[in-house]
Amino acid sequence: MAKGRRKKAPEEHENHERWLVSYADFITLLFAFFVVMYSVSTINEGKYRVLSNTLDQAFSFPESGLDPIQIGEISRQSDPIPAVFPTENSPQELNEKLEKLNESQQQQQDQLSTISTQVKEMLSPYIDQELIEVRRDDLWLKIEMKSSLLFASGSAKLAGDAIPVLRKISEIFRPLPNTIHVEGYTDDRPILTPEFPSNWELSAGRAASVVSQLVKEGVGAARMAAIGYGEHHPVADNRLEEGREKNRRVVLVVLAQSASRFKLDQSGQENLAVPEAKISNTADPHAAAGRPQ
User: Fold this and answer.
1) For residue range 215-258, what is the model confidence (pLDDT) as tens digits?
2) For residues 281 and 225, what is the distance between their CA atoms, to the nearest angstrom?
3) Which comes out higher in pLDDT, residue 272 or 154?
């Protein structure tokens, strides 16, 4: 054999059982998985029963069609079990109250209809001249008067021709218990004077003048309110002179008795005792200078 020749390395022994290590790891993981699944699926029976009973008591109601099983003697009570509905709300009494309500509403409508007829007959000359318009609703009666019939331009002082008109109206209003609102309106032309800085003051002043005159004629002050709407709530186009003339108006609103917010006091009796006629007078800070209305 030649000198310097290397020896052949011995062959390594092949291990045919290496798969057992992976198999053992797999079995261990599988066992751990089933242990976790079993622990999750296990229920505390005691706590489950408590929760179940609580939910049954909260959301379950006995069926009215089933009779309970009586065990032992029936306990007699001296006081009877109260009815579900009080006797005052029985169907018969509810129908009676509804009939009374309908009858009261019908009486109020008939009353407004009678007042409307009287006003139209008494003020027919002014209605024919289209200076006054009368309209009726189920809850109120409106008497709309043009400002030119009552006031001079830019003034809240009643004209001489306005006194006879208001005197005739007061003859109808004097014996009535109804609440009366006197509403003043102007057109959109601004006004700026020492007496009336804006249309709010002018419309409220005109409404207050009408209320004061009605009080002088014997109409109860506690039943009236003076309200100024200024140029708001127009009924015609302010770009036309004819429309502006329609917007300058005073409206007397006679409310049905049930429509008054002072109708009932704490005892349920009618209470219309208001200290004095209310005057709504709110200035408009954005009003610009201009000619009077």
Assistant:
1) 999 999 999 999 999 999 999 999 999 999 999 999 999 998 76
2) 11
3) 154
Give the HSE-up count for residue 60: Cα atoms under 13 Å, Cβ half-sphere.
7
**Entry pTM:** 0.57
**Cβ–Cβ contacts within 10 Å for residue 253, how many?**
20
Q: Which residue has the tokens 């009494």?
A: 93
The angle that helices 162-173 and 199-216 make with each other, rounded to 10 degrees, is 60
What element of type H or E holds 57? helix 45-59
Q: CA-CA distance, 74 to 171, in Å (whole number)?
A: 74
Task: Please check the confidence at residue 117 and state whether its pLDDT lies above 50.
Answer: yes
The answer to whether the beta carbons of residues 292 and 244 sit under 8 Å apart is no
Residue 290 clears pLDDT 50, i.e. is over it: no
**CA angle (69, 75, 78) in 5-degree steps:** 140
Contact criterion met (CB below 8 Å) for 292 and 153: yes
Please give the sequence-ordered ranges of beta strands (E in DSSP) within the chain, or none if there are none: 132-136, 140-146, 180-185, 224-228, 249-255, 278-280
Interacting residues of 117 by C-beta distance below 8 A, sequence separation 6+: none
Q: Kindly report the number of other CB atoms within 10 A of residue 162's CB atom.
A: 19
Per the DSSP assignment, residues forming a β-bridge with 184 are 228, 250
Beta-carbon contacts of residue 194 (< 8 Å; ≥ 6 apart) = none
CA distance 279 to 224: 9
DSSP designation for 142 = E
